[in-house]
Amino acid sequence: MFTLPELPYDYSALEPHIDTETMRIHHDKHHATYVKNLNDALTGHEDLLGMDVTDLIRDLNKIPEEIRTKVKNNGGGHANHSLFWEIMGPGAGGEPGGKLMEAIKESFGDFPTFKEKFSTAGLGHFGSGWAWLVIDGEKLSILDTANQDSPVSDGKNPILLLDVWEHAYYLKYKNMRADYIKAWWNVVNWKKVEEFFEKAGEKK
Ligand code: MN
């Protein structure tokens, strides 16, 4: 059985950038529903129910065809949101340090250029989806995906992600996705992103 992880901070911890009510509905309703629907879809597939969710969505071709779309959508929803809560936090924002900053500079030139490109990926994404920073071979890449699709299913290793579904921002920012993205940078927990980056390097 998959379970809804607790938020690693209080619902109000990301105020004023991400409001309490959005966090509550996003976590307790949206994320919880992905977990429930994933468990429902996997009824009778005990082997899959025991897997780590990232491993579950890594190779969707291994999932029986009759439940593949449900696993892609709800497994993706569970994996993506679990990661999303982790890379945010109170008293965060600013810039990353260490090896991650070096890698960002190598891949994008400088930090402001990276930030602009990532923001553009989120802002320019049509409809519901995510913007991502992934480890792509020897460098970092920015990409965007539709719905709950994860770059993990394409063999990539995400270290930062931004939810651009309307449910992530509509209560506070209405149709102003650009304002949401601008505010979101203030809650990015770079320490955690650095951790993901360094862990991925060790696995190579
Ligand atoms: Mn979401």
Give a verbal description of the structure.
This protein has nine helices and three strands; from the N terminus they run H-H-H-H-H-H-E-E-E-H-H-H. It has helices spanning 20-41, 46-49, 53-58, 65-86, 98-108, 111-124, 170-173, 177-184, 190-203; strands spanning 129-136, 139-146, 157-163. A three-stranded antiparallel β-sheet has the order 2-1-3, sandwiched between helices. A hairpin with a 2-residue loop joins strand 1 (129-136) and strand 2. Manganese (II) ion (MN) binds at residues 26, 30, 81, 163, 165, 167-168.
The beta-strand count equals 3
Main β-sheet description? 3 strands, antiparallel
Rounded to an integer, what's the Rg over CA atoms?
17 Å
- Would you tell me the overall average pLDDT? 96
Distance between the termini: 30 Å
Number of domains: 2
CATH topological fold name of the largest domain: minor pseudopilin epsh fold
Q: Could you say which overall geometry the principal axes of the C-alpha atoms support? A: globular
Structural class: mainly alpha
The CATH superfamily of the largest domain bears the name: Iron/manganese superoxide dismutase, C-terminal domain
In short:
With 204 residues, this protein is mainly α. 51% of the residues lie in helices and 11% in strands.
Key phrases:
3-stranded antiparallel beta sheet; 204 residues; binds manganese (II) ion; mainly alpha; Helix Hairpins; 2 domains; 3 strands; minor pseudopilin epsh fold; single chain
Helices and strands, with pairings:
Layout (H helix, E strand, L loop, with lengths): L19 H22 L4 H4 L3 H6 L6 H22 L11 H11 L2 H14 L4 E8 L2 E8 L10 E7 L6 H4 L3 H8 L5 H14 L1
Antiparallel strand pairs: 1-2, 1-3
Helix pairs in contact: 1-4
The structure holds manganese (II) ion.
